[in-house]
From TrEMBL:
This is Glycosyltransferase family 4 protein. It comes from Igneacidithiobacillus copahuensis. It comes from the Bacteria. SUPFAM superfamilies: UDP-Glycosyltransferase/glycogen phosphorylase (SSF53756). It holds the Pfam family Glyco_trans_1_4.
Length: 359
C-alpha cells in the first residue's frame, strides 16, 4: 500500500503523538509499504492571509535547514518519505491508497481531498480541546466522513457517544530503546521522576505542588524533571532539570529513579509513564482514561483523582515509606507493560488499513 500520514507541524522536538506516527511509518515501511509523512508550514485551513508572509519566511528557512525532521530524538527508516510542504492543500499531497489525518486541523484538510489521495482515515490520539479551538469545531471533525481509529478505549467511547465508529488500535512501545538496567530493589526509594510541560492540562503544577508536600515530610526527596521547554526560572534548587535529554539519557533517568509521577488532567495514551514501567519505576498517576489503558490501581501502580496534589503526595509518600509496596508495583508494572509492542500495534493498524482498500 501507499500510505500518507499528515502531521500538524514540524517534528523537530519530541512530541508523543508524532512519535506514534513515526513508529508506524517505520513499522509499515519494514513490512513493504510505501510510506510518506507530510509536515506542513501552514496548518490551519482558515489561516488569515495576513499571516502568510511570516509563514512563508519560516517555510523557506526550514526547507533549507531541514528542521522539520526529528533528527535529534527519533531514528526514521531512510525509506520513509519525510516531506516538508507549504500547506496541506491537495496539490502538495502525494497520491496514495490511504491518507491519514492525525489531528483536528489535518482532518479538515483531508476531508476535502480527491480520491487520488487515498481512502481517508483519521488517527485520534486525544480529545484536542486546547489552543482555543471550540468544542463544536472539534466535535465536527470527529463526525467527518473519515475512517477513524483510536489509541484508547475512552476515545472510542467518545466516538460512540457522537454516533461514530472507531477501530481500537492501542499504542506500542519500543523495548530496544527502554528497558530495565538498574534493579528495582537497588534504587533510592525517595527518588522521583516527572515530565514538565507548559500546557496547564499536563498537570505539572499539580505534580510540583504534590512533591513540595512530600519533601516537607521527607527532606531526602530528590526529583528529576525533564521536558522540552527551557528550565523554569523559579524552579527550586533541590530539583534537577533535564532539557531535551537524549534517548540514552532518558533511559538512564527512568532507571535511576524509584517512582514516576504523572499528574496529567487528560491523556490519550501517555508514553512517559509506560516508558517508566519498561524501565522499572513504580508509577503514581492521575485516574484518567489514558493511564487506565495500562495501569490498574492497587495492582501495578497507583491511580488518584486528577487536580488534587494532596492525594498525589500521599500516594508518593506511601511508596517511599513502604519499599516493598514500591518494589511490588514496579515489578508488576514492568511485567504487564510487555504486552504493548509495536509489532502488535502495526499488526492491528495494517489489518485496519488493508480493510479500507479492499475492492
Amino acid at each position: 500500500m501507499r500510505i500518507t500520514f499528515i502531521l500538524p507541524g514540524r517534528g523537530k522536538n519530541p512530541v508523543g503523538g508524532f512519535k506514534v506516527v513515526y513508529e508506524y511509518a517505520n513499522g509499515l515501511t519494514q513490512r513493504g509499504h510505501d510510506v510518506s509523512v507530510v509536515h506542513p508550514a501552514l496548518l490551519y485551513i482558515d489561516t488569515p492571509l495576513i499571516d502568510y508572509p511570516k509563514r512563508l519566511a519560516k517555510y523557506l528557512q526550514v526547507k533549507v535547514d531541514h528542521s522539520y525532521l526529528p533528527t535529534s530524538w527519533f531514528s526514521i527508516d531512510p525509506r520513509v518519505r519525510m516531506l516538508w510542504r507549504w500547506s496541506l492543500d491537495q496539490k502538495h499531497i502525494p497520491d496514495a491508497d490511504v491518507v491519514i489525518a492525525t489531528s483536528w486541523q489535518t482532518a479538515e484538510w483531508v476531508a476535502n481531498y480527491p480520491k487520488s489521495k487515498g481512502r481517508k482515515s483519521y488517527l485520534l490520539q486525544h480529545w484536542e480541546n486546547w489552543g482555543g479551538v471550540s468544542e463544536e469545531r472539534l466535535r465536527q471533525t470527529w463526525k467527518l466522513p473519515l475512517q477513524k481509529f483510536v489509541i484508547s478505549r475512552w476515545l472510542q467511547d467518545i466516538a460512540v457517544d457522537l454516533g461514530e465508529t472507531a477501530e481500537y488500535v492501542p499504542n506500542g512501545l519500543d523495548f530496544t530503546r527502554f528497558g530495565l538496567d538498574i534493579s528495582i530493589e537497588q534504587r533510592n526509594p525517595a527518588s522521583v521522576f516527572m515530565l514538565y510541560h507548559e500546557q496547564i492540562w499536563k498537570g505539572s503544577a499539580d505534580g510540583l505542588c504534590a512533591l513540595e508536600m512530600v519533601r516537607s515530610c521527607r527532606p531526602d526527596l530528590r526529583l528529576d524533571l525533564f521536558g522540552t521547554p527551557k528550565k523554569p526560572a523559579d524552579l527550586p534548587s533541590w530539583i534537577e532539570y533535564h532539557r531535551l535529554p537524549s534517548q540514552t539519557e532518558l533511559r538512564a533517568l527512568y532507571n535511576q529513579n524509584g517512582i514516576f509521577l504523572s499528574p496529567s488532567w487528560g491523556e490519550g495514551w501517555p508514553l512517559p509513564p509506560a516508558e517508566a514501567m519498561q524501565c522499572g519505576a513504580a508509577v503514581v498517576a492521575t485516574d484518567i482514561g489514558g493511564h487506565r489503558e495500562y495501569l490498574e490501581d492497587g495492582v501495578n501502580g497507583i491511580l488518584r483523582p486528577r487536580k488534587n496534589p494532596s492525594v498525589l503526595a500521599d500516594a508518593v509518600l506511601q511508596l517511599i515509606n513502604d519499599p516493598e509496596l514500591r518494589i511490588t508495583y514496579a515489578k508488576r508494572g514492568h511485567q504487564s507493560i510487555q504486552q504493548f509492542t509495536w509489532t502488535c500495534a502495526c499488526d492491528r493498524l495494517e489489518r485496519f488499513l488493508m480493510s479500507l482498500v479492499k475492492p
